[in-house]
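User: I'm preparing a small set of examples for a lab meeting where we compare how different chains pack in three dimensions. I only have the primary sequence for this one, and I'd like the structure in token form so I can line it up with the others. Please keep the answer compact; I'll paste it straight into my notes.
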Amino acid sequence: MTPRQRWLAMFERRPVDRLPTDYWATGEFHAKLKLALGKEDDEAVWRHLSIDRPRMVGPVYRPKTPRPAGQDMWGMKHESINYGTGTYNEVTDPPLANVDSVQQMLDYPWPTPDDMDHSGIAPFLASDDGSRIIQGGHYEPFLHYCSMRGMEQAYMDVLTEPELAHAALSKMYDFWSETNRRTWQAGAGRIDMMYLAEDLGAQTGPLFSLDCYREFILPNQQKMAALAKSFGVRVFYHTDGSARQFLPDLIDVVGIDLLNPLQWCCPGMELEGLVQDFGNKIVFHGGIDNQRTLPFGTPDEVRQQVRDVARIMRNQRWICAPCHNIQNVSPVENVIAMYEEAGRIAPEE
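Assistant: Understood. Below is the structure token output for the 349-residue chain.
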């Protein structure tokens, strides 16, 4: 089977020839992995480790009126922050930090779908060999709101300034729904899944009450998922942390097809419970711990964890992958051990 055939088999409840796998990593770790394997391009890495990684497609930001120098499409400026073993781009001077009225929020120079150039999508797909599943379309508005407003203020807004949060999130939905619609239209049936996300859980508990989620996030997620499915596009859903209380709504109301990343070390996310309650409804993606085992374990401990997760996921639709981005502190040997062990597991296990 090709990687695309394995993913589609997972979605369609069909048998696979081997356990499917995926890969998420920081740029620093990925460069280290390529160097260790002696591979110059990503596809060579995927083939060497038998990774069924999707191919991504989407529009390019080409505004008719360019932003001031140093700003991204949302009007944010970024600074590279070193955390010791790599860097992350962090937002500086959140552009919505001082907005104090709904009118100001609506008048902000939001990007528009016309700023996005979709002309490259059809040629990309026409030249694609069809071996890998195609991911196109994106929606994660509250994350952008946190970046534009400041994280602390954004979370306060849902309780103290709800009209401001609703105004901003409605603008983001309008942008992404039309941008995604044009993406899927340009894909002409070749785009297999979209990335729908919102981090609903922290390490020890939810980031939102269920009522807040249902007011501010769920309605537009539901509409976005319905739009995707009208084009035959499946919904890959990402949430970190302890998000157990949201899963019935995500599965039964939003209609997600896949749950990532299965951070089972967080309360409520124990794999046995997820399998018991939701195993007949969704594809599971992730499950290999990248907070302790991948960075600080031994190759043998990694192999054992892959076997342990595979035992719990027996007869489930599971794609073996790390619990979020592999960090640069992780030894290459541990990551190689993860994929080697996954390759030894028979699909029925």
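A couple of notes for your slides: The chain is about 45% helix and 15% strand. Residues 162-187 form the longest helix (26 residues).

User: Perfect, thanks.
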